[in-house]
Specification:
Elements lengths: L31 E2 L5 E5 L1 H23 L2 H14 L17 H18 L7 H20 L8 H6 L7 H4 L1 H17 L8 H23 L12 H12 L2 H13 L32 H18 L2 H17 L31 H18 L2 H15 L17 E2 L21 H10 L6 E4 L2 E4 L4 E8 L2 E9 L6 E8 L5 E6 L7 E5 L2 E3 L8 E6 L6 E6 L4 E3 L11 E6 L2 E6 L12 E4 L5 E7 L3 E12 L21 E9 L11 E2 L2 E4 L5
Parallel strand pairs: 5-9, 17-22
Antiparallel strand pairs: 1-4, 2-6, 3-21, 4-5, 6-7, 7-8, 8-13, 9-12, 10-11, 10-13, 14-15, 15-16, 15-22, 16-20, 16-21, 17-19, 18-19, 19-20
Helix pairs in contact: 1-3, 1-15, 2-3, 2-4, 3-4, 3-7, 3-15, 4-8, 7-8, 7-9, 9-10, 9-11, 10-11, 11-12, 11-13, 13-14
The chain binds zinc ion (ZN).
The site of zinc ion has 7 residues, from α13 and α15.
Length: 679
């Protein structure tokens, strides 16, 4: 289990040290992601989240994969293979959980892949050894379970169901896609120099390539069906990038082009819209169906488009992104309003209380937006990524990193339930797609901070980090200091500069209420270019310093009246953060169900350290508490009533990402306004 030094099936890992979504040199992208040492998170909230992920969340995942039966499923598949018949065995082995249990193992392995390289200082320590040891054992199981022709899926192998017999719901290629992404992650980080890391990467890549080769042999040039859950498309494109094997990209393109022709079949009568098979992707104008599936497919669409130079395909994806942001996105950045089929709803169907907003959908949107950011170089994609990160995604994890939301509503009432569930975070789920998905994103977060275009380094996200990029005249290396989201001050110090002129570009966040930029103390223009970046082009020297002061003054924000469910409400934002009211912070007499705000009352910010939450910035404001109707009261009346009549109370808002870390009582983001006629 812990002998990391020898394997008869090891293959040479790829030599590119990179992060997720790393286009080939020939890809048609405006920006290039950082390669080599790239970036590292060194301080601030994102760094703390990444550390918490490694120290609290990943160990939990390793335990849960054992408890929930994921590893037992793979052990059963391995035992059956050892028994000789591979499939349809009568050994009596039982399969546990949903058909896609393997994908939880793979997402965890992907997170481990990023982690093994992330912290060289900690290599050889207990944490590194535990992660490497788990990977060694899990990869060993995959090697033992994989059939001679490369096929690997513990559900099919244990159940004896025919392969690819019900692709609409079997998730066989979905699981294969996550296996491939784990292998790509491990391969891209394998030059960490840590003993055993390259060997693990080689073994996992060998398993993944045998799976991919099997898929190519089975599906290339055929019309045998599509997986009901997209994922394989982006995975195959990434495997092409990591290995140079063109057949993987060709199959990814085939799967993208075949969508919309009824090949995916039907998943329990949910219809073709549910699994993105209603229309060819190029004819699809809006995001529809299962939100995670739709956006995983978009990641594959953009990967295929940039690798094949297919501009119309890219433009169709951009058009759907624009439509989604304009009509189907919550204030938190979340998507997929319907609990029914975990799907996108109608345009502007964005109820705060019944928001589904699956955590995986926030991650999928983040991955899609990163690909579009690279493809176009436009800051609007980084803006959405930041909104997702600090709100829809950030809220999915408890302060202690041990509990997770699957569903992320913008309001919770006293008596909330879903089945028998009161709607709080859970340690794990019977369908556990979200927690290991969270872990693989947090483990790779540093790769999304910056990119290059020509001779310019673009910084998209501001946090404590080191960033280094190879430019024409040499390496430009920065140390960035920032206390976002609490303060808007960012300092970027040049530690190493190339010969000659080069550019340093800062995204000017769309939320900034006023921006000041200084270069070595001298005021500079803060006007962004047409793509949303301030580009400072000069002959940089070591010791140069750029400071940005972004305005994070708290502000009221109002929904367009077209969003029926929150018409007449307002919410609070500060910097990139969306705020919410939690019952825990309000005076005893101020019931969230009966609060309204008169006009736009002043917002008073203060730093606080709250039990269960820790360090934060809270916002105090004024509200009206109107009297609750008597029990049994008919809640409709012939006149509007007077919501302005009531007692004035001071209320306190906390960042949405920190909610539900206390007593499980109500929360709301959108607060009704007292109509102007009555205030
Ligand atoms: Zn999920």
């Amino acid at each position: 289990m812990t002998d990391l030094d020898a394997s008869p099936r090891a293959a040479a890992p790829t030599r590119v040290q990179a992060g997720p979504a790393h286009p080939t040199p020939g890809a048609r992208t405006a920006h290039r992601p950082l390669a080599g040492p790239g970036a590292a998170l060194t301080g601030g909230l994102l760094h703390d989240w990444q550390q918490r992920n490694r120290e609290a969340s990943l160990p939990l995942a390793l335990r849960q994969l054992e408890v929930a039966g994921n590893l037992d499923n793979m052990r059963a598949a391995a035992a059956i293979r050892k028994g000789g018949d591979g499939q349809g065995s009568t050994t009596g082995a039982e399969y546990h959980g949903p058909v896609f249990m393997d994908s939880d193992i793979y997402k965890t392995l992907e997170a481990i892949g990023w982690e093994l390289a992330r912290d060289p200082g900690g290599a050889g320590g207990d944490s590194w050894r535990a992660l490497a040891s788990f990977a060694d054992g899990a990869i060993g199981l995959l090697e033992q379970a994989q059939l001679d022709d490369g096929y690997l899926d513990s559900y099919i192998q244990v159940s004896g169901e025919p392969r690819y017999g019900r692709l609409a719901s079997s998730h066989e290629m979905y699981c294969a896609g996550h296996l491939i992404q784990a292998a790509v992650a491990m391969a891209r980080t394998a030059r960490s120099g840590q003993p055993g890391h390259e060997e693990l990467a080689g073994r996992l890549l060998a398993v993944a390539q045998r799976v991919a080769d099997h898929l190519v042999a089975t599906f290339a040039g055929q019309e045998k069906g599509l997986d009901g859950h997209p994922e394989i498309e982006t995975a195959l494109a990434e495997l092409y990038r990591a290995t140079g094997q063109r057949a993987y990209l060709d199959l990814a393109r085939q799967f993208v082009d075949q969508r919309g022709h009824g090949l995916a079949g039907d998943h329990h009568g949910h219809g073709q819209r549910y699994l993105q098979d209603r229309l060819p992707i190029r004819d699809t104008l809006t995001e529809e169906g299962h939100a995670v599936r739709a956006m995983y497919l978009e990641a594959g669409v953009v990967d295929v488009a940039v690798e094949t130079g297919d501009r119309p395909l890219l433009e169709s994806s951009i058009a759907r992104w624009e439509d989604m942001v304009a009509t189907k996105t919550y204030l938190t950045g979340g998507n997929g309003s319907r609990h029914s089929h975990e799907s996108f709803g109608d345009r502007f169907e964005l109820p705060p209380d019944r928001a589904y907003n699956e955590t995986c959908a926030a991650i999928a949107s983040f991955h899609w937006s990163w690909r579009l950011l690279l493809a176009t170089g436009e800051a609007r994609y980084a803006d959405l990524m930041e909104r997702l990160l600090y709100n829809a995604f950030g809220a999915s994890i408890s302060t202690d990193g041990q509990r997770f939301f699957y569903v992320n509503p913008l309001q919770r009432r006293y008596d909330h339930f879903e089945g028998d569930d009161p709607g709080r975070r859970h340690e794990w789920f019977s369908c556990a797609c979200c927690p290991p998905n969270i872990m693989r994103l947090l483990a790779s977060l540093q790769f999304y901070l910056a990119s290059t275009a020509g001779d310019t380094l673009f910084v998209h996200q501001f946090t404590g980090a080191t960033v280094q990029a190879p430019l024409a005249g040499g390496v430009l290396k920065l140390t960035m200091t920032a206390d976002l989201p609490w303060s808007g001050r960012v300092t970027a110090r040049v530690d190493q500069a190339p010969d000659g002129r080069c550019g340093l570009a800062l995204r000017i966040p769309s939320w900034s209420t006023g921006t000041e930029i200084r270069v070595n103390g001298e005021p500079a223009s803060a006007d962004p270019d047409e793509h949303g970046y301030l580009v400072i082009d000069r002959d940089w020297a070591s010791g140069d310093e750029v400071t940005a002061e972004f305005g994070v003054t708290a502000r009221w924000v109002y929904p367009d009246p077209v969003i029926d469910s929150v018409r007449g409400c307002a919410a609070i934002e500060r910097g990139p953060l969306v705020y919410c009211l939690e019952q825990a912070d309000q005076p005893e007499r101020a019931d969230l169900a009966h609060l309204a705000i008169p006009g736009a009352p002043p917002l008073r910010e203060r730093r606080a350290d709250l039990p269960g939450i820790g360090a934060t910035v809270v916002i105090d404001t004024d509200a009206v508490h109107h009297t609750a109707p008597a029990p049994g009261h008919w809640p409709y009346r012939p006149a509007p009533g007077d919501p302005g009549a009531g007692e004035r109370v001071a209320v306190t808002a906390v960042p949405y990402f920190q909610w539900d870390n206390r007593d499980g009582r109500p929360m709301r983001v959108w607060i009704p306004q007292v109509p102007s006629a009555t205030r």
